[in-house]
Amino acid sequence: MPDNPSGETWADVNEPGISEQFNRGMGFKMKCRYDDAIREFTAIVNNVPDFSTAHYELAKTYLLMGENREALKEFERAARFEPDNMDIQFFLRYVPQFTKPLSEELKDAQNGVDMDAGDAFAHNRLGVILLMMDSLDCGLQEIQWAVELENKAEYHLNLAYAQSLFDEGEAWREADLASSMGPENLDALLFLGALYMDLGREADAFATYEDAVSIYPGSDLLHYLIGNVYFAVQNIGMARIEIETAVKLNPDNYAARRALAELYMISGRDDKAIDQLEELVKMEPGVKAAREKLELLKAK
């Protein structure tokens, strides 16, 4: 690789002007100058399509403007390049439920809590919206209320997400509880596995993903994640086998193909790496790094 095959390993965020442009976009977003922020973020993703964080911030800006369809498209684009990012997955779980700008959804959710302070669903919904609007402390408090009112796996999982922004140990306890309440809860298992990886507990992450894949054997994402765990412990052979499985299950899994190309290069199998890079260029012609890697390998 030499770095982990997942994530933004190929996005050239150091390309001249990109980091400055991203910072300008974030500044505009913080000042509620959403049109200006969208202009900056859009220019970035047009230039560096695999910069998943720019897609993510563009999506959040669209969401604040009430352009929910555009927001969903950008969250999906972000997930294409970084499928194991739990921030992205959190938004993808809830954005399809929204039909209004977040500010209006916030008013409705607050009204729901005001009308019935004992409504766990209302507290959870309010907490989710507050988290999406970066009101982290308030969002955490609302979801804690939801959990106290109703012992439900969804609320524990949302609390795990909220806690992960402050205390990964507390987040792990909530995610573990959510997964134990519904062993078939794929979102909980994915979140728990991601937390284990963040905590450097690769063996526990592996066990979690293996439990999940026994329930969902056809999940290309799970095989991709298992491959990442193998890579983290430097078992390149098994990493390649798992990620090959992910690509077979879903040939459109861009992140898995990207990782597989890197694994083939590490293994000295340039011919197979070229095959994957050619597919990547077809799938995302705008990603410069894939084209450059392909040209270098063919020039050998």
Q: What's the alpha carbon Rg, rounded to whole Å?
A: 20 Å
The averaged pLDDT comes out at 93
**Overall geometry:** globular
Question: Proportion of β residues?
Answer: under 5%
Quickly give the structural class: mainly alpha
Distance between the termini: 18 Å
- Counting DSSP E segments of at least 2 residues, the number of strands comes to 0
Helical amount among residues, as a percent range?
over 70%
| N-to-C series of helices and strands | HHHHHHHHHHHHHHHHH
Q: State the low-pLDDT regions, or none.
A: 1-8
Could you give a short account of the major beta sheet? Answer: none
Total helices: the number is 17
Q: What would the keywords be for this entry?
A:
single chain; 300 residues; mainly alpha; globular; disordered N terminus
Describe this entry's structure for a reader:
- This protein is an all-alpha fold.
- About 75% of the residues lie in helices and about 0% in strands.
- It has 17 helices and no strands.
- It has helices at about 20-30, 35-45, 50-65, 70-80, 85-95, 100-115, 120-130, 135-150, 155-165, 170-180, 185-200, 200-215, 220-230, 235-250, 255-265, 270-285, 290-300.
SSE layout:
Layout: H1 18-30, H2 34-47, H3 52-65, H4 68-81, H5 86-94, H6 102-115, H7 120-132, H8 136-149, H9 153-164, H10 168-181, H11 186-198, H12 202-215, H13 220-232, H14 236-249, H15 254-266, H16 270-283, H17 288-299
Helix pairs in contact: 1-2, 2-3, 3-4, 4-5, 6-7, 7-8, 8-9, 9-10, 9-11, 10-11, 11-12, 12-13, 13-14, 14-15, 15-16, 16-17
